């Protein structure tokens, strides 16, 4: 019995010593430095909002035309490229909409009336006439958006929008090269 009492006393004394040692270790230590503030995204400027609307319009229109190319094109390479363009620009448009919504900018969900007329006219074309018109429309749209992309990339402070513009520029240049 005496031996059991000694063992319990020794164990209890060891445990108390460990607790006191641990509490003494943290007693004089300085507090850890505060965490850095989360980096805030650059605000959306009027130029950013205008560019977002322009790129959204291009995405909507070119996605509709590329979808038509999958079934109306006479050239099989244009049909395959149309599927790729439709997929890529749909993803781009979703990312743009998410980014714009985070900055309280609402984007349209349908092409403008003028672009819808182009889409409607292109729906009636098939084969080589569709191919010529599609390449011409894509080249025209690419030429129109190119200065906006370059300007946005060089002047915007919003890193996410710059990345989106850079990706769009790279893809559009690639598509244009493949069409010709």
Task: Describe the structure using short key phrases.
single chain, about 180 residues, mainly alpha, Ferritin, elongated
Give the gist of this structure.
This protein has 180 residues and is mostly helical. It has helices spanning 2-27, 46-72, 76-102, 113-123, 127-155, 159-179. The radius of gyration is 31 Å and the shape is elongated.
What does this structure look like?
The structure is a single chain. The chain is mainly alpha-helical and 180 residues long. It is built from 6 helices and no strands. It has helices at 2-27, 46-72, 76-102, 113-123, 127-155, 159-179. The protein has one domain (46-179): Ferritin. The relative contact order is 0.14.
């Amino acid at each position: 019995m005496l031996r059991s009492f000694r063992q319990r006393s020794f164990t209890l004394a060891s445990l108390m010593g460990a607790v006191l040692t641990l509490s003494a270790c943290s007693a004089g230590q300085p507090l850890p430095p505060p965490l850095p503030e989360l980096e805030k995204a650059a605000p959306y400027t009027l130029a950013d909002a205008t560019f977002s609307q322009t790129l959204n319009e291009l995405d909507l229109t070119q996605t509709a035309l590329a979808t038509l190319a999958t079934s109306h094109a006479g050239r099989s390479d244009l049909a395959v490229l149309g599927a790729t363009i439709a997929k890529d620009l749909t993803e781009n448009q979703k990312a743009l909409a998410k980014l714009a919504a985070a900055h309280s900018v609402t984007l349209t969900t349908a092409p403008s009336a003028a672009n819808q007329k182009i889409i409607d006219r292109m729906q009636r074309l098939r084969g080589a006439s569709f191919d010529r018109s599609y390449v011409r429309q894509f080249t025209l749209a690419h030429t129109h958006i190119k200065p906006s992309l370059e300007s946005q990339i060089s002047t915007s402070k919003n890193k996410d929008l710059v990345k989106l513009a850079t990706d769009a520029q790279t893809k559009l240049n690639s598509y244009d090269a493949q069409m010709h």
